[in-house]
Amino acid sequence: MKKTLVLMAVLNSGLTVAQQPAYSSAGDTLAPPAEQTQRRPGMATRPSALTGTTGTDRNELKYNLNASGSHFFKVTFMNQTWLRFNQSNPGTTVVQEPKDNTFDIGLRRTRIQAFGQISNHVFLYFQFGMNNFNYLNGFPAFNTNGTPSNRKVAAFFHDALAEYLVFKNKDYLKIGAGLTIVNGLSRFSQPSVTSIVSMDVPVFAQATVDQTDQFSRKLSLYARGQVGPVDYRVAISDPFPIQTSGATPPTLGSTSNFALKGHKKQFQGLFLYQFFDKEAHQTPGYMTGTYLGKKKILNLEAGFITQKNAMWRREGTTDTTYQNLDLWSVATFLDMPVNRATGTAVNAYLGYFNLDYGTDYLRFNGIMNPASGTKQSVGGLSGTQGNAFPMFGTGKVVYGQFGYLMRQDLFGGGRGTLLPYVQAQLGNYQRVTQTMGVYNLGVNYLINGHNSKLTLDYQNRPYYETSGTQIAPAGRRGQLVLQYQVFI
């Protein structure tokens, strides 16, 4: 009993609830400040888990492993709840009943992170959680083999990796391996979702999501680092077969789809040139959406993903042709203060994406789709119901966003501030007759930075009808979402 009490006292002295600045996030990095110590008369100085500066509020769950705080282990929790009204695409059904519109309540993301610098050279990272959990989770009532489905099967490991810092206290080279979102193509292929400006990320940038990856994560060997103004990450990945995606793969036809035969490695890389402050670099992969005026960031970026014979299609009636997956992008990102005295800041992103999934590849996707089926076929494609639109396809996409952080004392008395934003995704796909435009307009109420915020978002999107071998826009629909995010 005495030993147990002593152990509890030691843990209590080291494991405390501390707060980081409100702009920190799952993909953020805060350099450990000078270590604070607790001393009583007649007692030796010992390490404390407190890592902020004197006088700041604290809400960080972190345990320091050494006196300086350079070795630590940390746990974070995040939940995003959606209340949504959606105008359904034509033909939409919900549990076999036609629905012109829907209202649903869901959990967009629920996550737990556990990570830390456990020695001078070793970093450990895990993330566990679930996504897109609404009333249709586990639907249909029976799987294709006739067994009952289970709405409780949702949570899984998103990330599990170890990373080795080659040069002590220098970010020049980090080598890691495991299940990871370290990615090529763009910053939005590996977003820190707790710190984004908009309610949700442009998911098209997570190019193979849930097709040959696990919610954008892959089993990879990677190297990343920062050398002067250059930030880089390169990876060789072992993609999952499309047969393990949980959905019935499309039949082999004249349009390209992920191949059901063969297995090749995937190569990817992302390179950034940083003109002013350096970006956060602690958590593997994840890139911050906005620092809320705490940093001065201007970057140019270029990225790619390539995989040989990843796709296939049928020429004529018998010949099977394999095609490479080749994706690349260039973009610029800006996030900086406008007036440091009032706390105003601006955030902007503009990117060009050249996407080659093979001839006429096209995939509809609806985020946490509130509909279960459709009675109206669109080009023989699946998943066209509810709030879906052509999110992934062979062609060219331009994506842009702009946000403005208003003054910190907007409501007075520490009641938070507002961050309004706009988004636009313009896609020129081979299989679509006209350029697709999806537009979002929204506002964040930052109650306590990213740690507690409400977001109201309106999206306007096109819906489609069959036009020969292509699809053509036939009108537009909208959805309105209120999200509450809490993060510690």
Describe this structure in words.
The chain has 488 residues and is an all-beta fold. It has one domain (74-487): Beta Barrel (Porin), CATH 2.40.160. Helices cover 3% and strands 50% of the residues. The protein contains one helix and 26 strands. The chain has one helix spanning 2-14, and strands at residues 15-18, 37-38, 46-47, 60-64, 72-87, 92-94, 97-98, 101-117, 122-133, 156-165, 174-180, 218-227, 230-238, 257-258, 266-274, 297-315, 319-339, 344-356, 362-365, 373-374, 389-393, 395-405, 417-429, 436-446, 452-467, 470-487. The protein has a 16-stranded antiparallel β-barrel with strand order 5-8-9-10-11-12-13-15-16-17-18-22-23-24-25-26. Strand 25 (452-467) and strand 26 form a beta hairpin. The longest helix has 13 residues, at 2-14. It starts with a helix and ends with a strand. The model is unreliable at 1-57 (pLDDT under 50). Residues 1-18 form the signal peptide. Keywords: Signal.
Which value, in Å, is the CA radius of gyration? 24 Å
Q: What number is the mean pLDDT?
A: 88
Low-confidence stretches: 1-57
The sequence of SSEs as H and E is: HEEEEEEEEEEEEEEEEEEEEEEEEEE
Largest sheet: 16 strands, antiparallel, barrel
Query: Total strand count, please?
Result: 26
The number of distinct helices, counting runs of at least 4 residues, comes to 1
Multimeric status of the protein: single chain
- Note the gap between the termini: 33 Å
Based on Cα principal axes, name the global outline.
Answer: globular
Instruction: Provide the CATH superfamily.
Output: Porin
CATH topology heading = Porin
Count structural domains: 1
Which range does the strand content fall in? over 45%
